[in-house]
Amino acid sequence: MKYYIIAGEASGDLHGSNLVASLRAHDPDATIRAWGGEKMRQNGANVVKNYHDLAFMGFVEVLINLNTILKNIKFCKKDITEFAPDALILIDYPGFNLKIAKWAKKQGYKVFYYISPQVWAWKRRRVYKIKRVVDKMLCILPFEKKFYDSYGVDCQFVGHPLLDEIAKVEPADRSKFYKANRLNPRKEIIAMLPGSRKQEVSRMLTVMLQVVKRFPDYQFVIACAPSLPMSYYKQFVNDKSNVKLVRNRTYQLLQLSSAAMVTSGTATLETALLDVPEVVCYKANKISYLIARLLAKVKYICLVNLIMDRVVVKELIQGDMTAKNITDELRSLLNNQKRQRKLLEDYDELKYVLGNAGASDRTAETIIANINLN
């Protein structure tokens, strides 16, 4: 069968790549065309549009790039029509994907949505559109199933694909990692995960790097997104000898870190699943943030806290994201053993709530079974 997958971000490329592998395992004759990245390509998808060209963040940025977005939508519709897939699989990226879903449903394509937009957080009216234009929602967070059931949406909880990723992680070799990245063997690491888009990386690092001088006994390592050139990060680091850069080694870095500063997003969950104490940071364009605050329907911004429905990790948002506040939280995480033990207990509970590994296989099986129903 033929599958058309649309992912518009780095996390979508990651989860999409595992889904591509599972589809090919369950359907050896599968032909897969996709919008994504190198991970999806490596697993056998023909990637026709890279997510690097799609990641516009916030209301203001979307308006500035509206012409490019409209051209992408036109190209996407034409490409789907020529490919004529048995299933259209949408991965998060709601601003774009829901427009395509509406069109695709009218054309008679079978539409699956894997990894739900955060309609439970804001823009809840989108749930009615999802009900009309999506044949099956495949959600990865346990509370999403209850939410969609209340609106009569055909939804299945498949588990979180990050559990599959974490299960594949081999223990990091401290000696090799330190040597390869010219790290001081006598100092522990504090990791920085500043995001994957230029705008957020700039905002995050501007504040995060102010923390470095306050921890002379530690060394700092920035996890660089594969979507951005190393030169982009180097302009912020300049002559800071106590800060190193790594790429495509985020899980190794986290395994070897004593604590982490993490930009809100999927990375907060990855950090928790790897048992790393973290402080969650977020600072957006002021206008975008004010609009989001007006529309948001959730108590927390961090996935860990959202899933657990309570504060597990500290969130420093907008004006609260200062070098002093980050420093205070890091010191508490590093020096308070009682707090460290409680945090690890919370992380264990988080893993239990997210269910077992196998999300990608369950998703592939469900999609194939639903196609075969017709």
Description:
With 374 residues, this protein is α/β, with parallel strands linked by helices. It folds into two domains: 2-161 and 358-372, 3-Layer(aba) Sandwich (Rossmann fold), CATH 3.40.50.2000; 167-354, Glycogen Phosphorylase B (Rossmann fold), CATH 3.40.50.2000. The protein is 50% helix and 18% strand. It contains 18 helices and 13 strands. It has helices at residues 10-26, 38-42, 58-64, 66-83, 94-107, 126-133, 142-150, 162-168, 174-180, 198-208, 230-237, 250-255, 266-273, 286-295, 303-308, 323-335, 337-354, 359-372, and strands at residues 2-7, 31-36, 46-50, 87-91, 111-114, 136-139, 155-157, 188-193, 218-224, 243-247, 257-263, 278-282, 314-317. The strands form two sheets. It has a seven-stranded parallel sheet with strand order 3-2-1-4-5-6-7, with helices on both faces. Strands 10-9-8-11-12-13 form a six-stranded parallel sheet, with helices on both faces. Helix 1 (10-26) packs across helix 18 (359-372) and helix 4 (66-83) packs parallel to helix 5 (94-107).
